[in-house]
Amino acid sequence: MDTTVWALLISAISISFIHTASGPDHYLPFIVISKSKKWSGMKTAILTVVCGFGHVFSSLILGFIGVFLGWQLNKISWFQDLRGNFSGWALLIFGGIYLIYGLVQAIRNKPHKHFDVMGDDVYVYEHNHTEMVMPQKRIKVTPLVLFMIFVMGPSEPLIPLLFYSGVKHSMSEIAVLVISFTLTTVLTMLGMVLLGRYGYSTLFNTEKLERYMGVVSGAVVTVCGIGMVFLGW
Q1: In degrees, to the nearest 5, what angle opens at C-alpha 185 toward C-alphas 104 and 208?
Q2: pLDDT of residue 189
Q3: pLDDT tens by residue, 49-90
Q4: Which residues pair with 124 in a beta bridge?
Q5: pLDDT digit string (tens) for 156-180?
Q6: Domain that includes residue 57, residue range
Q7: Checking phi first, is residue 199 left (phi over 0); if not, alpha (psi -120 to 50) or beta?
Q8: Distance between CA 70 and CA 212 in Å, rounded?
Q9: Stated pTM of the model
Q10: How distant, in Å, are the alpha carbons of 24, 79, 108, 211 from that of 128?
Q11: 3 phi and psi, to 5 degrees?
Q12: What is the number of domains present in the chain?
């Protein structure tokens, strides 16, 4: 693989791992519901993997919008001479904007998910640290609810990476991005869930890191963009 593919591969793996591992909502509900319902390890793992693929699917839908836009630009004759520089700059600009967005979200008290166990049931709700949560705002967690939560929570930083490869019309780069993002996301979710289920959750304290997830993801895309534009990756 050439330098560009390696840069995209490392970026995709980094973003998917950070996005998954830094968000307790990617594994905590599975740990809690598994223990409260006394599920087997196999049943817990199957639900985790299914929800993981649902999460990847929604991310890839957004990502392939980027691929489509890149391919459409590639059909414009005068764009042929500009596409290399344009795609690199687009990656860099998106990364910078996402980095700034992440900083703003980190400074603001962004609402985040919490999961509570009440008897044999698990409930999910959103709040920030300055507001009370009313009982009616809590939603009972079921396997279907968990699946829908993950389907409706895509990873946006994948979009510019796939857009970059779409502009270049490179199926090999797109395949590398899709496969690496999918495997890293699902395996990270599964690993965190199983570690937590078997009593190793105290090793991880990702709640503080979750606040800066957008910052780190934006920084990864920005670094990749800098490499494409200025370092010849």
Answers
A1: 35
A2: 93
A3: 999 999 888 888 888 887 887 777 766 655 555 555 677 888
A4: 115, 139
A5: 777 888 878 877 777 888 899 999 9
A6: 3-231
A7: left
A8: 29
A9: 0.79
A10: 15, 46, 10, 12
A11: -60, -40
A12: 1
